[in-house]
């Protein structure tokens, strides 16, 4: 097994990197103390792995697997899981049903691999009865998922991990500015002692590993939603991976990329996704939220 993370010194900070949640994960730590930077990285990696292990739908040995394989029987949950489910419920209500963590079953039909292979209408129609957050029952102690249905926290899990790691860093090293960046979902714990902002690139939806904008951020969260490498292309029509759970098809007129800045990464991620679900009205929706945002079409 290789090292848990890579740590390198920069001119006025340390940069730590590791892979998790199918994303490159990076911490920028404003310190010249390598031991302090290493300790923060160890704690960040441990917390990220804990969240990934607990909630990943790709594992068969965790809580989420038991939830999705429960076939209508109650499964015991803890406080953390209950709070995430409450947040999912809030997302569902705010979006009027467009943000629905039961809609992950649609990936059985849609495979956004850049090809021109669209699913059949029959395949989509067969999955629609398995979508519906209102059918999920839960309280502080247990959850019941009807047979055939499943839950997918992919729309909020990474942002939650970013906020958790940032809070952990702030508790461990108050007053130390740390950037937590998991695949473009970002939280900055507090302003730098130098007063200078951190510079965060927004990846171009057309060119991988190339920024189409560089933002200056001193404190708070950023999140990006887009179809950079998750799409289908058929007869000149591009189908992005943001699906409407009410229709089973990709949202029409959705931007290529949306980045939102708010106090917390989880909130920014929610607004970026909700804006995507608005399609052609994305910019209007974001203006109504009175947040800073960047849209690429």
UniProtKB/TrEMBL annotation:
<dbReference type="Pfam" id="PF02424">
    <property type="entry name" value="ApbE"/>
</dbReference>
<comment type="similarity">
    <text>Belongs to the ApbE family.</text>
</comment>
<dbReference type="GO" id="GO:0046872">
    <property type="term" value="F:metal ion binding"/>
</dbReference>
<feature type="binding site">
    <location>
        <position position="273"/>
    </location>
    <ligand>
        <name>Mg(2+)</name>
    </ligand>
</feature>
<dbReference type="GO" id="GO:0016740">
    <property type="term" value="F:transferase activity"/>
</dbReference>
<dbReference type="InterPro" id="IPR024932">
    <property type="entry name" value="ApbE"/>
</dbReference>
<keyword id="KW-0460">Magnesium</keyword>
<keyword id="KW-0274">FAD</keyword>
<keyword id="KW-0479">Metal-binding</keyword>
<keyword id="KW-0808">Transferase</keyword>
<protein>
    <recommendedName>
        <fullName>FAD:protein FMN transferase</fullName>
        <ecNumber>2.7.1.180</ecNumber>
    </recommendedName>
</protein>
<keyword id="KW-0285">Flavoprotein</keyword>
<feature type="binding site">
    <location>
        <position position="155"/>
    </location>
    <ligand>
        <name>Mg(2+)</name>
    </ligand>
</feature>
<dbReference type="InterPro" id="IPR003374">
    <property type="entry name" value="ApbE-like_sf"/>
</dbReference>
């Amino acid at each position: 097994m290789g090292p848990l993370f890579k740590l390198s010194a920069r001119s006025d900070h340390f940069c730590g990197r590791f892979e998790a949640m199918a994303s490159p994960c990076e911490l920028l730590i404003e310190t010249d103390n390598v031991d302090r930077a290493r300790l923060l990285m160890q704690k960040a990696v441990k917390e990220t792995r804990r969240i990934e292990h607990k909630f990943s739908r790709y594992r068969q040995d965790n809580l989420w697997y038991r939830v999705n394989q429960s076939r209508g029987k109650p499964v015991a949950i803890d406080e953390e899981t209950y709070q995430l489910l409450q947040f999912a419920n809030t997302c569902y209500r705010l979006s009027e049903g467009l943000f629905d963590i039961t809609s992950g079953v649609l990936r059985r039909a849609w495979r956004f691999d850049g090809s021109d292979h669209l699913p059949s209408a029959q395949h989509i129609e067969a999955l629609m009865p398995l979508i519906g957050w209102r059918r999920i029952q839960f309280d502080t102690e247990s959850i019941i998922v009807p047979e055939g249905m499943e839950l997918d926290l992919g729309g909020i899990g990474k942002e939650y991990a970013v906020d958790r790691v940032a809070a952990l860093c702030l508790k461990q090293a108050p007053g130390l500015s740390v950037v937590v960046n998991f695949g473009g979902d970002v939280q900055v714990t507090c302003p730098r002692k130098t007063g200078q902002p951190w510079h965060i690139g927004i990846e171009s939806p057309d060119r991988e590993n190339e920024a189409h904008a560089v933002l200056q951020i001193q404190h708070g969260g950023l999140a990006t939603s887009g179809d950079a490498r998750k799409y289908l292309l058929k007869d000149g029509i591009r189908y992005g991976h943001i699906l409407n759970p009410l229709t089973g098809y990709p949202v029409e007129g959705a931007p290529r990329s949306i980045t939102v800045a708010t106090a917390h990464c989880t909130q920014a991620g929610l607004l970026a996704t909700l804006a995507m679900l608005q399609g052609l009205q994305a910019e209007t929706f974001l203006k109504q939220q009175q947040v800073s945002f960047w849209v690429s079409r």
